[in-house]
Amino acid sequence: MEILEQIQRFRPWNAQEAQDRIELLRRLSSGEKLYTRDNTSAHLTASAWVVSPDRRQILLAYHNLYDSWAWLGGHADGERDLLSVALREVQEESGLKDVQPVSPEIYSLEILTVDGHEKRGAYVSSHLHLNVTFLLEADPKRPVRCKPDENSRVGWFNLAEGVAASSEPWFRERIYSKLNAKLTAFPPVPQFEA
Predict the structure, then answer these.
(1) Residue 129 lies in a domain
(2) Which residues, given as ranges, of the chain have pLDDT below 50?
């Protein structure tokens, strides 16, 4: 399904999602090329809020660029299936292979500012990430590893500790806290001991 249709169906949880949804729909409907980084002012990205089956833990990576613990995700880079992008990015950034969507639907929407920075020896101007977040699930007992060109550590945190671990106030207060609060709509998966 096209991302435009998914965003049209998406029901915002708060004012931030409502406003960002309006802008995402406007940009996608305008015909602006958003699926690649060729659009240097704004492009589509997909993030993942990776939770344990009991919904008590979240997976974060210590991102080198932002010098902070953060969610996992990345650029669409031409891919139109943003759920696939989120799944791929989690696998690449954490080494986890058994990651599943809790739902195929969009979990959250965000328009994120990215300050200008150096990447692989080239300057990247400040721009926007038009971000779609998916809720994914993985087993915290599975081994994880970092991806040295992007992050230096990967780890599981309880919900509150994960939010507190971020050194980015706006993400802590506006994004990660929201993502945790929205988990109440997705009850834990019962765990049966063998």
Answers:
(1) yes
(2) 192
